[in-house]
Every structure is written in structure tokens, then in C-alpha cells.
Write a structure and sequence with these properties.
Helices cover about 35% and strands about 20% of the residues. The protein has 6 helices and 8 strands, in the order E-H-E-H-E-H-E-H-E-H-E-E-H-E. Helix 2 packs parallel to helix 3. The radius of gyration is 16 Å and the shape is globular.
């Protein structure tokens, strides 16, 4: 189980497969998370986010309509998004390195590979909530820090080029 109280969390599940949405919702409810909304694609999810202040979103990568990556790009658009700092966990059966890089570059916080086990899902939720990565704004990117470890800069020129770190409010 999670070591933090998640009972007050608001979670948005974005998944086009009804059976998988039902599985995820049941798993979240078993953890005590009762405020769960569901969307079949990224556009429906954006419509829900306009009225539902989600604390976490889980999404599929491949969906009819607006895909997972397209949704992440819309959420991370600070000018139009109702929740640009929303923690996002992507679930995908495709573990191709190029896809994972594109998802990371779009602003996904973490990944879970399908088929999903309850344990792997819970570990990712706990990681994203207990150890949030700082957000970065740089030319062409806004989202969670993509590096897993922060590397110390050792020169003035490198410090100037460093993207500003932003703390979600």
C-alpha cells in the first residue's frame, strides 16, 4: 500500500479501453481514492480538466481521437491549459526507446508498461506524488525535469544555459 494518504486525491483516467479503465478505477478505489473521472481520449480529458482539478492523470499512449502524447502537449501548454503542472503517468505496451523519449520530451512524469500489475502502478503513483520532479521551462519545453539525476554544473557558461527550475504552486 501507499505510505501517503491518497483518500482526498482527484484522479483522471484517460483510456479508450473500457475494461482497462474499469480495472484502473477499481484499483484506485481499493486504495481509497474515490474521486476518479474517466475519459476515452485526450480531448474528452481536456474538457473534464476544465471543470475537475485533478491531482494526477493516468493515460494510454495510443487512443482514437486525441492520443496520449497530444494530450500531454495540450496539458503542458501554459497559455491554454487548466493544469500545466498536472502529474501524468503514461501506460503503454510499446516500450520502444524512441516512444519513451518522445513521451518524456512531451512532459510525461513517469511510465508504466502494459500489462500493468497493481504493484507497478502503485509504485509509480507513490513515486510521482512523494518525489515530484521540479518543472523546467526552456526553449521548446515545459514540464518535469527529464534528467533522473541532477548533474552539478561546473562552469559559468553552463549555468547561464541552465533552464529555470519552477516549483508548481
Amino acid at each position: 500500500m501507499l505510505s501517503i494518504d491518497v483518500s482526498g486525491l482527484k484522479v483522471l483516467i484517460i483510456e479508450d479501453n473500457l475494461h482497462f479503465r474499469t480495472f484502473l478505477k477499481s484499483l484506485l478505489e481499493a486504495l481509497g481514492i474515490c474521486d476518479v473521472r474517466e475519459a476515452r481520449d485526450g480531448q474528452e480529458a481536456m474538457d473534464i480538466l476544465a471543470e475537475f482539478p485533478a491531482d494526477l492523470a493516468t493515460l494510454d499512449q495510443k487512443m482514437a481521437g486525441v492520443s496520449g502524447l497530444e494530450f500531454v502537449a495540450m496539458v503542458r501548454d501554459e497559455a491554454t491549459s487548466p493544469a500545466p503542472f498536472l502529474p501524468i503517468i503514461m501506460m503503454t505496451g510499446d516500450t520502444d526507446d524512441a516512444l519513451l523519449k518522445r513521451a518524456s520530451d512531451a512532459g510525461v512524469n513517469d511510465f508504466v508498461t502494459k500489462p500493468v500489475s497493481a504493484t507497478s502502478f502503485l509504485v509509480r503513483i507513490q513515486s510521482v506524488l512523494e518525489n515530484p520532479r521540479p518543472f523546467v521551462r526552456s526553449e521548446g519545453y515545459f514540464g518535469p525535469e527529464r534528467r533522473l539525476k541532477h548533474v552539478a554544473f561546473d562552469g559559468a557558461e553552463q549555468r547561464i544555459k541552465q533552464a529555470s527550475l519552477i516549483t508548481p504552486s
